[in-house]
Structure prediction request, 406 residues.
Amino acid sequence: MEKVKIGIIKEGKIPVDKRVPLTPKKCVEAMQGFSGAEVVVQPSDVRCFTDEEYAELGITLQQDLTDCDVLMGVKEVPVDQLIPNKTYFFFSHTIKKQPHNAKLLRAVLDKNITLIDYELLTNQQGQRVVAFGRYAGIVGAYNGILTYGKKWKLFDLKPAYLCHEMEDMQEEYFKVKLPPIKIAVTGGGRVAGGAMEVLDKMGIKKVSVFDFLYKQFKEPVYAQLHSGDYNNRPDVEVWDSPDFYAHPELYQSTFRKFTKVTDLLMACAYWDPRAPKLFSEEDTRQPDFKIDTIADITCDVDGSIPTTKRATTIIEPTYDYNPNTGELEPPYNRKDNITIMAVDNLPCELPRNASRDFGRNIIDYVFPQFFNNDEGGMLGRATIAKGGELTERYKYLQEYAEAAAV
Prediction:
């Protein structure tokens, strides 16, 4: 088989992302497992894995990647750094017509680039195969507990981004001493799974939705809430998940019952803009609205959580929402404000662990397709552009891309 030269690019987007698609060990594993693969790495002074860590394992460091066939990054590649006529893998954030990336898609077409978007890599069942969701959940839940502890002056946790690895972060768990609060975790995917991992390891007990709503506890507890627990369709008695995902606009939120008993909300559920919001800003002004801390881990600005008015940064992860005025204020100022954690790049706080997980998925799911003529069609389904044109599935982006040329 002829060699395919794969270049791991230096991340060019600002603010800089420290994650990598393949760690040093995963580069070695890729070359050992796929005889056609040769992996080189563009030097970078910002990666969570240093150039030395790659070099020590015999991975070639190479500044000029124009002789590579495939280029792999994590975030969007700046337009002036795109090399024409190559195949690129990265998160392009173009499929929802995100305004700030129209120029990027235009450049991909102009430069005859084949763009494969990680977000679109799915198996035959439509489930994503590579994602950072688990680490968003892990860091998000940790940040949520950190925020609650800080708000009520209960304990001080070291921020996740100051921890070298997840093991260092887990050393902080023993500091967590919570009163008998109730924590609601929404969602059933990777993100919610990561969040519940943290709560379990902190020794916080999981209870049923019924018990969460109607029982009192002498210890902190959490419940996992699925869509059917807080949405209903007024004209249909029985919950039907496929119907909800197909027609979310026909549903209304019943989350109000949870706002009366929940202290800390961890929002981990994927949200469709057609679906109802969990609650309204008006609800937050009701005397029985109990939630005072929200970790919006999915971080949809003005999405399922109406109090998430903007995203936050790793360095300044929180702000307060004042229910009486609807305005945002500095965090931890007033106890009757709702404190919001809305970091939109949570996995970047544990970049080494997140990158290991991601690389594992690339080797297990993506490379077998790549080096086997895309037998299951996974790469084809995830290819947005090829040969200077949008592929059939993504033709709807044509006007979006063309508008950027003006």
